[in-house]
Design a protein that fits this description.
This protein is an alpha/beta fold. It contains 6 helices and 14 strands.
Length: 261
């Protein structure tokens, strides 16, 4: 299976560059399944049902959120209605939506997609390891599921890497998101799981993590935190990863970092 994952989509610049390239990802890169992190796609914070529908209409198969999944109130009911959008699995079950989904390709192959939040330097959530282990009791790679993709939305690189090694050999890929900076450590771990600490963002890179520079600089220089963060609206760049898996084992054969304008 060939899996493509677009990193955090930030505001209009991110939406435009991803929308422009979805057909190319399918045709030129021969992606069997396209995953998109829509965490920051609505003015930098959260996502709306309209944005989700647009991505799906243009070719996205599964939409992944993160810690801002409830920032747009209208998404709450949509999380329940739409089977291909997921929110973090390690938050209270009373929340709307689901922490994982199984997407079936046209040829019958199936991919399990899971997301968890990290706990270091972030708001308190349940244990990500326990949440994933609970889900994996029902799915065994290479037996009743063809591929398993895990997104860890977290601040700490050590936490992401620890989860990668913990799941090595049990899932197809562990991909980090949230910090919006693409890392240079894409590789296949010893037991066959593809890994990257952060996929990066899809958005305007002439910015500070997708936002205009003034407010973050003022926070750094003066500790002035009252100024609102505004999305940068320059030309967008897409950062993503392309993973090839073995159809017999579900393990990764390769992972490639992809940049598109």
């Amino acid at each position: 299976m060939r899996i493509f994952y677009c990193g955090d989509v930030v505001a209009r610049s991110g939406r435009e560059v991803v929308s422009k390239n979805l057909a190319r990802i399918r045709s030129e890169l021969k992606a069997d399944v396209i995953l998109v992190n829509v965490e920051n796609s609505a003015h930098g914070f959260g996502v709306t049902p309209g944005i989700c529908r647009d991505f799906i209409a243009k070719g996205a198969d599964v939409l992944i959120t993160g810690n801002h999944f409830l920032n747009q109130r209208e998404i709450i009911s949509y999380l329940q209605e739409c089977p291909v959008i997921i929110r973090p699995a390690n938050i209270p079950e009373e929340n709307s939506g689901r922490g994982f989904t199984v997407f079936e390709l046209a040829d019958g192959r199936k991919i399990l997609v899971i997301q968890v939040l990290g706990r270091l330097f972030m708001e308190a959530v349940d244990c990500p390891v326990q949440a994933i282990d609970k889900i994996l009791k029902s799915y065994v790679l290479g037996k009743n599921i063809d591929a398993i993709f895990v997104d860890i939305h977290a601040e700490a690189t050590s936490e992401k890497l620890s989860l990668g090694y913990y799941l090595d050999g049990r899932v197809s890929c562990v991909a980090g998101t949230h910090t919006h900076v693409p890392t240079a450590d894409a590789r296949v771990l010893p037991l066959g799981t593809a890994y990257i600490t952060d996929v990066g963002m899809c958005g305007d890179y002439d910015s500070i993590l997708g936002f205009t520079k003034e407010a973050p600089i003022n926070r750094l220089r003066r500790r002035f935190t009252a100024e609102r963060l505004e999305p940068a609206n320059g030309s967008g760049t897409l950062y993503g990863i392309l993973i090839d898996t073995d159809d017999k084992t579900g393990l990764a054969k390769s992972i490639t970092q992809i940049k598109m304008d």
